[in-house]
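Shipment paperwork, digital attachment
Item: protein structure file
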Amino acid sequence: MSDTIQSAFHLERRPFGKDVPCEHLWLDDARTLAIDRMLDAVTHRKHVLVEGEPGCGKTTVLRALQSRLSPVHFRPVYVSHVTLGPRDFYRLLAFALGVEAKATAAALFAAVQAEIQSLHREHRQHPVLVLDECHLMPDTTLGHLHVLANFGWDALPLLSLVLVGLPELHDRLRLGIHRSLLSRIALCVELKPTSPDQTAAYVRQRVAAAGGRAELFAPDALAVLHELTGGLLRSIDTVAEAALALAAERDLKLVDRELVVRAWHLTPLA
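Attachment content:
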């Protein structure tokens, strides 16, 4: 099927889609350093907190981290549906680990912990449990996580938790009921929106990775794109793709400031 944006700009694929290969992920120095620190933390079997506003690139950082985890030594498990009570959460976790679901919450908990111990004992693999959207997790489930990671009277670090969410997750963890979990987290990674220069570099890298051989956005277009989106990568993707679609409709080869503004008004972000 013909794609108007790809055809108009002679691209191999749409530059601002989600299906970006790991080798083409855009990572600035701060995000690269964050991934290095996260890798060091889980290598030493510690827990990590990743926080940031919606669309600031948390999932991108997680994908980059996963690509650097050796499948021989690590077993990454990603769970995004965290709005569950403890029993259903353990059932979902058992499914993700390939464990037979049990009838009771206690049996589910025991089966999950047994599988984690088995991964270490039989496969020499360290499980890394990535829990996305943790700001939505009920207190009853969030309050269980430090118990889930408790092995050998809390002396055996057999599981690394990577808790991911909006900044309010950190605020929740500071509450008294979650102090046991907060005190066990060794690293906090805060992801921030891009600067104007980083927004321009991001757009150019995404276009180049899609096979673009020329500048598709004028400098003033990149400036207003940053201003309108606040440097949030997901919003940049949305507006930049809408601008390319408008340019393709008008048979224009360069996106200017006016076109970005018009595109922005076509999105729910306006």
